[in-house]
Amino acid sequence: MNFEKPKNIEKGRNIDLTIHLMRHGKKRPDGNLSETGAREAQERGAEMGVMKNVKAYTSRVPRVVETAQAVQQGAEIYNKFNQRNRSALSDTLLRAPGTDQPPRFFKETILKRLADAHTAPENNREQRIREAEHQNMQEWLSHDDDFIDETTNSPKNVARAVAHLLVRQIDMSEHLKSGSDVDLLDVTHEFMLAAIIRYAVKKQNEDGSTVSGEEIMREKQSIDYLESLDIEVHIDENGKKTVSLEINGEPYILDMDTLRILSDEYKEGNINTQSN
After folding, report:
1. How far apart are CA 58 and CA 67, in angstroms?
2. Predicted confidence (pLDDT) per residue in 40-66, tens digit
3. Between the N and C ends of the chain, which has fewer C-beta atoms within 10 Å?
């Protein structure tokens, strides 16, 4: 009896891959996802429309895991794969390399500012919380590749780790079965999004001038709940790949050269390990 050998499955043609790097939903003062946060996450999922194949990755923090679940509950999904954790999305990435101690800047300074803001009078509580978040983010980003203290990771180190994850996901498109349409939902914390914007994102103005990631984050001040970097990867029938980025529905530029440099530095262990 003769058996035909299976034909090779064609890969890397007519591919649509979208990566949603998203901050978790609104949290309660105790850090857990609030009812409002869960509802808004479902609404965010509904806004994302129909998604044929979805794979979610998260931090291990419950509010992040629950946000990813709520987004998927709100979306119309044909095929959903098991949700998994990724270290580049985890709050443990905020620890300085080589330490197992909680990052002091996050555990003390940031939490105290937010706790104080949550005790403000109700009529200006939300404003106080936003001001605290802005102060926290800008103070952290100002340290670039340096350490605020010996337990807290630098913004650039965080960007290196997240860049490595994103590069792997973007390159994955070349190995997907031709005709695939896939969404990757990367739910994480605001500092991971801010670090990528700071080092690997630009924006082009109508007059042709370019706004750097540092300027973008200075203007944004912080990252909103459920805000996302939506990276669209398209490979046409000839194998030509294009990568585009939107934030809040507006076009931005994802600097792939810089993203790959950051990723390579992470992969090769070329990161800053000396605290100041």
Report:
1. 9
2. 999 999 999 899 999 999 999 999 999
3. N
